[in-house]
Amino acid sequence: MIRLEIAGIHTQLCSTLCAQCPQGATGCCKSPPEHDWSDIGRVVALGGRDWLLDQLAQGNLLPSARGLSIRRARGRASPASPRQSKCVYHGPRGCTLTTARRPATCNYFLCEDAYVDGGERRGADGALAARRAHAALMEQYERWDRELFALIAASFPEGVRWDAAFLDWLGGEVVRLPRGPRSAILSG
Ligand code: SF4
Ligand code: SF4
Fold it and tell me: Does the beta carbon of 97 lie inside 6 Å of ligand 2?
C-alpha cells in the first residue's frame, strides 16, 4: 500500500513495502541522494541552518558541484546484517533525520517495486496519485535547482563559502522562488 502525506513541497510518499524492502534492510539508503541547492535552502528555511553547519564541520555533508553530498559510512542495518556502505544517517531503525532535514528525494522517492506493490498496475488510486505527485515534485525541484544554480553562479562568481551568511542567503532565495503550476496539485 502507498500512502501520501500531502504538504506542498514537503509531501511524503510512503510504502508499506519499505518495511520488507526487497533490496535488504538498508533499502535505497545504500545510495543517498545529494542535498541539492533547493534541498539546502529548504532545510535552512525550516530552521536547519546551524544543523547544516554542524554536519559540514563533522564531515557528514561534503561540498559538491550540485550542493552537498551525504557521506556514506560502513555499518550494519540490523545486528544480523553484514556491514555495508550506506548513508551516514541510516540507523538500526531506518533514517535518523526528520523529514525537514532530509533531501526532498528521500521524502518522495519510491522505487518501481513499491509502485507495483501499491497496485499501480491495477489502477489503485493511492499508487496513481503517488506517481503524479512524484512527477510534479521532481519537475518542481529540478526547475528550482536550475534557477538556483544560475543565481549562485551570478552572485558568487568566485565560488561559495559554506558559512552562515551563504546558507541564510540560500534559504531566503528558496522561499522567494516561484512555485510552478503543477505544484498546485500538491498545495498544502
Ligand atoms: S522505496 Fe523501494 S528500495 Fe526504497 S526502501 Fe522502499 S521498497 Fe526499498
Ligand atoms: S537521509 Fe535518511 S532517508 Fe535519505 S538516504 Fe539517508 S538514511 Fe535514507
Answer: yes
Which of 31, 87, 101 should be mutated for ligand 2, with most atoms under 8 A from CB?
87
Residue nearest to atom 6 of ligand 1 (CA): 18
Residue with grid cell 498545495, as numbered in its chain:
187
Please report where in the chains the cell 488510486 appears, as a residue.
Answer: 125
Q: Which residue has the higher pLDDT, 180 or 45?
A: 45
Query: Percent helix, strand, coil in the chain (nearest 5)?
Result: 50, 15, 35
pLDDT-derived band at 185 (thresholds 50, 70, 90) equals: very low
Cβ-in-10-Å burial (0-12, 13-18, 19+) of 99 comes to middle
